[in-house]
């Protein structure tokens, strides 16, 4: 058939990376929550798993916004595999900024709502990494 291309090659889900950059302002967190929910739904996470991940992303962003200078950007990297979603949120930081202790309530929330949560800081940036695996097979 002229003008039509057919193929039986399927895209590989384990290669999907989504990058979003928004102003480091709480008013833009809805964009990240919506992207999180959409990607988790694509992986067929259960509704409660999607909501847990949305809350975790919101909490991680709140922690980072507290140490980000005004006028900067929050970068979010979503890595999609066949059964998991990894979310890495990064912001520039003010000098000598510190994230809450891993024994803080905020960290307890993150670890309760995700498969794993970790943080790292470099001289001028802080990153929180969240991993959520789908609990049920679909």
Describe this structure in words.
- With 138 residues, the chain is α+β, with helices and mostly antiparallel strands.
- The chain has a single domain (16-133), classed as 2-Layer Sandwich (Heat Shock Protein 90), CATH 3.30.565.
- 30% of the residues lie in helices and 29% in strands.
- It has helices spanning 29-42, 47-65, 105-113; strands at 16-23, 73-80, 84-92, 116-121, 125-133.
- It has a 5-stranded antiparallel sheet, covered by helices on one side.
- The longest helix is centred in the middle third of the chain and has 19 residues, at 47-65.
- The termini are far apart.
- The relative contact order is 0.20.
Outline:
It contains three helices and five strands.
Topology:
Elements: E1 16-23, H1 29-42, H2 47-65, E2 73-80, E3 84-92, H3 105-113, E4 116-121, E5 125-133
Antiparallel strand pairs: 1-2, 2-3, 3-5, 4-5
Overall shape: it is globular
- Percent of residues in β-strands: 25-35%
Low-confidence stretches: 1-14
Largest sheet: 5 strands, antiparallel
What is the spatial order of strands in the main beta sheet?
A: 1-2-3-5-4
What helical percentage do the residues reach?
Answer: 25-40%
Q: CATH homologous superfamily - what is it? A: Histidine kinase-like ATPase, C-terminal domain
Give the distance, in angstroms, between the N- and C-terminal Cα atoms.
36 Å
Order of helices and strands: EHHEEHEE
Identify the notable features of this structure and list them briefly.
single chain, 138 residues, alpha+beta, Heat Shock Protein 90, five-stranded antiparallel sheet, 3 helices, 30% helix, 29% strand, globular, disordered N terminus
């Amino acid at each position: 058939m002229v003008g039509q291309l057919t193929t039986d090659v399927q895209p590989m889900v384990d290669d999907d990376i989504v990058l979003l950059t928004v102003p480091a302002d709480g008013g833009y967190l809805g964009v990240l929550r919506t992207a999180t929910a959409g990607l988790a739904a694509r992986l067929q996470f259960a509704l409660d798993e999607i909501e847990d991940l949305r809350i975790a992303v919101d909490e991680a962003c709140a922690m980072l916004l507290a140490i980000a200078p005004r006028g900067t950007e929050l970068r979010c990297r979503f890595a999609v595999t066949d059964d998991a979603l990894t979310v890495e949120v990064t912001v520039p930081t003010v000098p000598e900024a510190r994230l809450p202790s891993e024994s803080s309530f905020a960290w307890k929330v993150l670890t309760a709502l995700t498969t794993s949560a970790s943080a790292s800081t470099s001289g001028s940036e802080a990153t929180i990494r969240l991993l959520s695996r789908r609990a049920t097979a679909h």
